[in-house]
Amino acid sequence: MYERILLKGKGGAMHSSTGLAIAASEMIEFAPPPQILRFLIAKTNPARHIDFDPGMGLLSLIDEFEKYENAYYGLDTLKDEDFRTIYELSYIRNLPHGPDGIRFRHLVTLVQIYQDRDSLMAALRRSGYREGSGDGGLEFEISVVKNWLSKYAPRAGEVHAPARGGRRWSWTAMRRLCWRLSLGPYRI
């Protein structure tokens, strides 16, 4: 049994009587698929409390999940000997056939830069996303990103893109931004 789940920055255990709670229905709205939350539980020692940070900590958790996913499919290596079991416990039903190819952190950046769907989809295609390659979860992930940005994203990490008709982003500026956000090179 897990000792408790602590909401980072609030100093106490998440519990409805203390006011430090996030409803599961709300977590699904800003945390990507439920496997991320199951991953958090599966990778944590049951005798310890779980620190949950819905801000930048959630992005770090998703990055870690993506590393486990890449290692599971042979695209990366991990020192954790239990990575296969932890990844498998993150899913209730069938495992996907492989990673979807678009990192969540990259999607967060693109959703902030591109306000309309056509521009966003064009940027995703330039990043390697192929429409129809996933299970239709991209629209859900985009809505999750928007919810997370509106409720939990730290304001210091926001990307402010010029409004339509304003100065356009140069590819050099876009590359610098992606490197600054630790996304690696932006593929054109």
Quickly list its features.
188 residues, mainly alpha, 2 domains, two-stranded parallel ribbon, 8 helices, 2 strands
Q: Could you give a quick summary of the protein structure above?
A:
The chain has 188 residues and is mainly α.
Describe what you observe in this structure.
There is one protein chain. The protein has helices at 24-30, 35-43, 56-72, 83-89, 104-113, 117-126, 138-151, 171-180; strands at 5-7, 50-52. The chain has 188 residues and is mainly alpha-helical. It has 2 domains: 5-89, no CATH class; 104-180, no CATH class. It has a two-stranded parallel ribbon.
Protein structure class: mainly alpha
Which range best describes the helical content: under 10%, 10-25%, 25-40%, 40-55%, 55-70% or over 70%? 40-55%
| Oligomer designation | single chain
Question: How many alpha or pi helices?
Answer: 8
Q: Tell me the series of helices and strands, N- to C-terminal.
A: EHHEHHHHHH
Q: How many structurally independent domains?
A: 2
Largest sheet: 2 strands, parallel
Question: How far apart are the first and last residues' alpha carbons, in Å?
Answer: 48 Å
Indicate the low-confidence ranges by residue numbers. Answer: 163-167
What number is the mean pLDDT? 75
- Beta-strand portion reads under 5%
